[in-house]
Design goal:
Layout (H helix, E strand, L loop, with lengths): L5 H13 L7 H17 L4 H14 L8 E3 L2 E3 L3 E3 L20 E7 L12 E4 L4 E4 L8 H10 L11 E6 L10 H12 L5 E5 L14 H12 L7 E5 L5 H13 L4 E4 L27 E4 L3 H15 L5 E4 L5 H9 L4 E4 L1 H6 L3 H16 L4 H4 L8
Helix pairs in contact: 4-5, 5-6, 7-8, 9-11
Amino acid sequence: MADVGSGGLYRRFVGPLLSRDDGADAEQLSQLTLQALAQVSLRRQWPLLNTTLAGLGAELQRPDLRLEQTLFGCRFRNPVGLAAGFDKNAVAAGIWHLFGFGFAELGTITWHAQPGNPRPRLFRLAAERAALNRMGFNNVGAQAALRTLERQNLPAAGQRPAVLGINLGKSKVTPLELAPDDYASSLELLAPLADYAVINVSSPNTPGLRELQDEVQLRRLVERLRRLQACPPLLVKIAPDLEDEAIDAIARMAYEEGLAGVIAVNTSLNRLGLEERRIPQTGRTLAEEAGGLSGAPLRGRALEVLRRLRAVAGPGLPLIGVGGIDSPEVAWERICAGASLIQLYTGWIYAGPELVPAILEGLSQQLDRHGFRNISEAVGSGAPWR
């Protein structure tokens, strides 16, 4: 019988487009996908569409009470989330659970709308299952994002089928010294719709942004946001390119300031052995191109940073692992290294919708094989893949 499920259709029609660097334009393909998902999210209660979506959920969701966790006041039905950067403007917030995700991180959203960097700015590295992006926080701005979220008639925070986080960045036009107020304006507006919020100070594509990872600067930013009324749980997302001392300082600061968690990691400015890899669209090598590298080449460094954070922060600080997770084995390794939750982006694009249920099935099987009662027992356990 022909495979007509979402995974089969993805392999048949989208897979060939992703198999070459110079296939369909990467950003255009993402935009077309999001435009379709936006319409579906707005109309998800329509009877015929609702039935179709129920079928999608039945195909891709893998309910297992052992995979549930409550972290920083949020109930996660499973530990697999969609990373920030895909649904930048929160247009599909109402349907991410149907793809099997336990949570989705929307954004990055800035206070001021901004077009981002000149195109082309997103490149596939198909053979390496990787991507290079220098998007530059292109988004419609916090006020338009609020209207988009309100139009989708989402259940109240805490009552959703998937936890929704909102990832916030600094507007490019805002000088660094005014960054705390810039982030605060966005958070104040969007906080009522967020289960949690992320302070993104680690994108390599906004000039000067990574300077906010400095311990003094970051502490000032966190303290400004904590003064807001009804501030949601706050997490910080860090870069893979930090020195060990800076990672240690952030871990200590997160603990001292009572942050809800740390997300490790963002994209990398390090070319991770791919310096001479040439991009067909520009003819230049990765060493010559600006932007952050994501996907499989980032896997090793992302794991190192996570382990360092866990060693310094101890078991009390929730960590979210992201970067190069593209299989059940890698997901299990990241959890057993100390991640309570994991996020997918580049790996999910290449693998398609079958990746999330495959990871969830793999996690459940590993719980059985190790005799763990729930996923929390696996976190930081160092248990190998069996």
